[in-house]
Amino acid sequence: GAGEGKQAEKFLEAGALVTAVDKKSPKKQNQKIIWKNSSLEKFISLSDFNNVYDVIFMQNIIQFLDKKWTLTTLMPALQKHLSKNGIIAIRTFYKNPIPPFKEAPLSFYKINSLLSLFKGWKVLFARQFKYNGPGLSGINRRFYLSDLIVKNVQK
Questions:
Q1: What is the rounded CA–CA span in Å between residue 83 and residue 103?
Q2: Which of 8, 19, 28, 55 has the largest CB neighbor count within 10 A?
Q3: Residue 155, pLDDT score
Q4: How far apart are CA 144 and CA 99, in angstroms?
Q5: Residue 40: CA atoms inside 13 Å, Cβ hemisphere, count?
Q6: What is the pLDDT of residues 73-82, one digit of tens each?
Q7: 96: which residues sit within 8 A by CB, 6+ positions away?
Q8: pLDDT recorded at residue 59
Q9: pTM for the model
Q10: 57 falls in which pLDDT band (50, 70, 90)?
Q11: How far is it between the farthest Cα atoms of the chain?
Q12: Where are the beta strands (DSSP E) in the chain?
């Protein structure tokens, strides 16, 4: 989800038309961002695929979604919503952080499992790494992260 919209704001500042999806409304809504107050599951299930995006950015969300749904429903849906030469960028966990969250992630994704979802796509960036620092709550953790940026060159 988009949370408070910090990343959405960065895309907006760069000149993008931005649609942000989250279950909760942010405390301060930038009126230039198209806010969809919905779970990602509901947003995808109600999608008619008329909207096509140049960039789809997901940071720290798919690890909290059901893995089967993510692999069989979400990823194919995102690919249908992407323009020719569009980009999908994902940051997720490949292992539980230390100390763990109170609400444990449901799924973990090593970089090779993410890469396997985008056969025939141009890989712009791929890494699996460890990061020590504060999370959104401000608590310092050791994070185990996978980053992937791919470009659709198939359409």
A1: 35
A2: 8
A3: 56
A4: 12
A5: 22
A6: 999 988 888 8
A7: 104, 105, 108, 144
A8: 86
A9: 0.86
A10: confident
A11: 43
A12: 19-22, 34-37, 53-59, 82-98, 122-134, 140-151
